[in-house]
Prior knowledge:
The complex is a heterodimer. Chain A is 45% helix and 14% strand. By secondary structure, chain A is an alpha+beta fold. Chain B folds into 2 domains: 170 residues, Acyl-CoA dehydrogenase/oxidase, N-terminal domain (Butyryl-Coa Dehydrogenase, subunit A, domain 1), CATH 1.10.540.10; 146 residues, Butyryl-CoA Dehydrogenase, subunit A, domain 3. At the A-B interface, α7, α8, α9 and α11 of A face α7, β7, α8, α9 and α11 of B. Chain A: Belongs to the acyl-CoA dehydrogenase family.
Amino acid sequence: MNLDLGDRERAFRDEARGWLERHVPESPLPHMDTAEGFEAHRRWEAALAADRWSVVSWPAAYLGRDASLLEWVLFEEEYYRAGGPARVAQNGISLLAPILFEYGTPGQRYRYLRPMADGTEIWAQAWSEPEAGSDLAALRSTAVRDEARGGWILNGQKTWSSRAAFAHRGFGLFRSDPAAGRHKGLTYFLFPLGADGITVRPIPKLDGHPGFAEIFFEDVFVPDTDVLGAPGDGWRVAMSTAGNERGLSLRSPGRYRTAADRLSALWRERGSGAADLGDRVANAWIAAQAYRLYTFGAVTRISEGGGIGAEGSVNKIFWSELDVRLHETALDLLGAEAELRGTGAVADGAWMDGYLFALSGPIYAGTNEIQRDIVAERVLGLPRGNR
Amino acid sequence: MRFSLNDEQRGFAQSLDDLLGDADVPAASRRWADGDGAAGLKLWKRLADLGVSALCVPEAHGGLGAGPVDMVVAFEALGRHLVPGPHVESAVLAPALLAASGGGPGLDALADGTTMVTVAAPPLTPFALDADVAHEVLLLDGTTLFTAAAGEARTSVDRSRRLFDVHRGEEVGRLEPAAAERALDGAVLACSAQLLGAGERALATTVEYAGSRRQFGRAIGEYQAVKHALADIRVALDFARPLVYGAAVSLGAGSPDAGRDVSAAKAAVSDAAYLASRTALQTHGAIGYTEEYDLGLWINKIRALTTAWGTPRHHRARVLTAITAVSP
Lengths: 387, 328
């Protein structure tokens, strides 16, 4: 058992560190969920891609570097340490791309992966519906076969679609066989958000920015070439996305490690008048360190052929709650200044922005209540029964 | 980088589990608490045969010279199975102190388990565990090691922890401050591993109970309130475990961060194991609150170990000092 990096990994990390030091913008970009910020973040994605840093773990043919899982973790640590901008392409890169690699046709991979990697096309996810949140399989949006045109007609409504206010394309599940069971007869579709019959209504989030949206579908035609996986197999295909989202790929340990280090620095500056917060600062650091080491354990397991499975739910509960606690501690340290945002606030309001972002963690990708059910039933083996 | 146990370590854990699983350790622990050490000493001998007492003794003295990771593997099993006796003191702390101070009882006899040593190390550990059974009592006062004599007996909530005041005897030797700190960190880590094992056992016992105990016509483990409480223990233990093993790697590599990492592990695993014990009791209800039912042995063990070898608050303060120190 060791935590030592090999020569190749150290060289990779140092190269990433050097590049980020030279390229990360000195002052923060405008928020990515504004029209101006969205474009600025796309340009950043293009800059990353130009030197092959946007999707390090992808194959070289798709602008990646064939980086190992460990190297990806190291890149992420460096990225957060350097204060890199939020990744506007994140939904596509971490949720859709793994599915394209696993289930996509060569044509789909050719058409979609490179524009995703360099920020040309930003993807929005379209999972939830007004009556299908945690209970995703209750979704009612429909796909009806159009044999004449060789495709499907989509109708219905999606909501809480991250990035959809400004994004170019979306991906989501539609009910293609209403006679089949809840988890059957669902099909995974890719569609342009500018298609005829699609209306996008942005929804400002708690932070005031339109970070997600409702999407209305009225007789939207999607050709067969934009069905991902087999028709009717959408649930299985989508669940591998959910596994990714809950597990390793969405939340790298770098985020918490950097935030915990900044919290330690904040305590050094302001802790003298708040000695009672010391325990919480220490706990935040300990939790971030635990998450980092846990990730190294998972990386080892995966590289030796193991999987993540339902343990992704254990992971998701931990990082989402750690994130909230860490930011709450920072806000308590800031005292009366904690509520301030933007210019004039400590660190331009980064702690409050981080807090507002963290609040979504226990909700999205399956609420933490759903995750606890999964842990209890699939990890601990408690009876499923009638909850 | 490889952050998982190797096949040998898994095998070692398995052989300890096999031995202890068949040994009716709770009964031995109860008799140990009553002052009847026969079963506990037999267990001590069998564990020594598996190499537990030799793990941390240098090879030159007949030990295995194993690293802290192997030690953690062993102590997780001792905690899971409720093994009584001064294992932390005799197998981890004493070898480190004696090797670093160059004196005292022979390391060779520690390695083969024929000598049992206990150690008091105030202020964190003011009492000597099982000083009436141990062949030698040591006292670490700052960086000076003394022989000691057992004084008045104290009563722990975990009755199998037979605690004694100590009276200072002859000076054995002096340690470099860093060596003393490293020796104590080893003991703190061993205690952390015991807590990890004990917490895992409390969870496993409770999952089993929740799946079979029925109320209102169904297993109580079907209720979401119970499910979520048990899921929270799984989360807490799953994220305490890498801290414990990470601290072992750190200690083994002689990292300058080892003290910080050991304290992070003790703080987190104390909280996790304590959560496990409280939820285990609550889920079992009245049966868990009885002395007769074995679960109570783990509950009281976890309560005692939570504040032994430094309270969670002490260890968090040590982490805080380390992480807020201005880097050189």
